[in-house]
Amino acid sequence: MTERYDIAVVGAGPAGLAAALAAATHGARVALIDAQAHAGGQVWRKDVAHGWPRRAQAAITQALHHPHVTWLAQTQVVHADPHSLLLESAVGAQRIDYAALVLANGARELLLPFPGWTLPGVTGAGALQALAKQGWPLQGRRVVIAGSGPLLLAAAATARRHGAHVLGIYEQADAANVQRFARSLWRWPQKAMQAALLRGQLAGIPYRCGSVVRTAHGDSALRAVTVESARGSERLDCDQLAVGYGLVPNTELAQSLGCRLRQQGVHASVEVDAMQRSSVAHIYAAGEQCGIGGRDSAWLEGSIAGHAAAGAPAAASLLRQQRHARAFAQALETHFALQPRVRTLAQPDTLICRCEDISLQALDGYSDARSAKLATRCGMGACQGRICGAALAELGRFPRSGTRPPLFPARLASLGDNLSDNHRESSV
Ligand SMILES: Cc1cc2nc3c(=O)[nH]c(=O)nc-3n(C[C@H](O)[C@H](O)[C@H](O)COP(=O)(O)OP(=O)(O)OC[C@H]3O[C@@H](n4cnc5c(N)ncnc54)[C@H](O)[C@@H]3O)c2cc1C
């Protein structure tokens, strides 16, 4: 039987939790869906050793225990139609209908390939944090953190809290930009407080600007990295490298529903108005997929979207706070813009598509992602081009291609009876 909800919310990070809560306070019947076992999204991912931060715990308890909210954990949206979602979980597939939809499915890390990046021991910066919170042992391991943006600091703090010996944080942005960013933080007192807290937690760990990891060395596992900066190259012995160059909005679900995207450099985000309405009637979007803005912005946008989806426009004060939070996103984008150097890290024989083992030079001669994919299988693996597609766009090879169902690899049994005929034809 197809369950029917007033509002379906995809994603239970700060944006989705806020949307579900706001909508439920108006009496709407809400389905809150997330692929993860626990609510909280990326920033509030449950830490098996330390639990949730207090604010996250309160938000999660309130949303999940609200009588109007049905919590669908470990449930992935694999396909969406304008009024229904196809969900897959361990127990099988299910369809739900909705009157309004809030997309709050976040962002992923931008990984830029370089020699050695596929060695065991190399992960994204946020990915290391996620692994640590899920119990991956870091006690006594020598960790190098690199890439760009404040996420590096959060990752380093988590690694240290889990017993890692963090050797250094290597930021690609130059010192002048990072200092300008730090000086602008007075405009967002909560962020300034967070930064001060992190400074304390990271005391004694070198923070080097204008630095990139050029190579990860090792045979069957990571043994060392070469870091390049204005002062030259240095080799550091280490056990773990966590490197991420910022975040890329997860726009595939919105795209598959026909929502208009806004191009931001080589990546895109979902276009919304002040009430978080997308270009498609009754579909709202909030949080990182509308542009990388951080936790506070995601929470505010989720609240606005939840109120609006329930037919009750958000208070003017909420809209004002959201505009202020979005200005922080703009500051992040400006001061941590990627330097041209990071686009030169991949060498001709560097693997670009790690799911299908495709090197950069194997893609020479193809002018678009689709022809490269058909001829080489680049982007056809488990991540469905989410990692290599974003990297290739950043390297100036191909713009990101469109999307088609299913959104994630799914069981044939889930798709068999559930995709409409025309989608089934276009998938084979
Ligand atoms: C790996 C990683 C680690 C991060 N760590 C931090 C940090 O420590 N501090 C910080 O300030 N910021 C961090 N960020 C930035 C973070 O994304 C935001 O600040 C904040 O979590 C954004 O909230 P959100 O609700 O927009 O999205 P998210 O918190 O990303 O939540 C989106 C949720 O949608 C779910 N989802 C996505 N697609 C589907 C689907 N098809 N079906 C079902 N569920 C789906 C995901 O499982 C996820 O739980 C991190 C980002 C990443 C990618």
UniProtKB/TrEMBL annotation:
Claim: Oxidoreductase is one of the keywords in the record: yes
Pfam families: Pyr_redox_2
Alphabetical keyword list: Oxidoreductase
Domain FAD/NAD(P)-binding: 5-290
SUPFAM superfamilies documented for this protein: FAD/NAD(P)-binding domain (SSF51905)
Family matches, as InterPro entries: BFD-like_2Fe2S-bd_dom_sf, FAD/NAD-bd_sf, FAD/NAD-binding_dom, Metab_Enz_Cyan_OpOx_G3PDH, Opine_Oxase_asu/HCN_bsu
The protein's name in its UniProt record: FAD-dependent oxidoreductase
Origin species: Dyella acidiphila
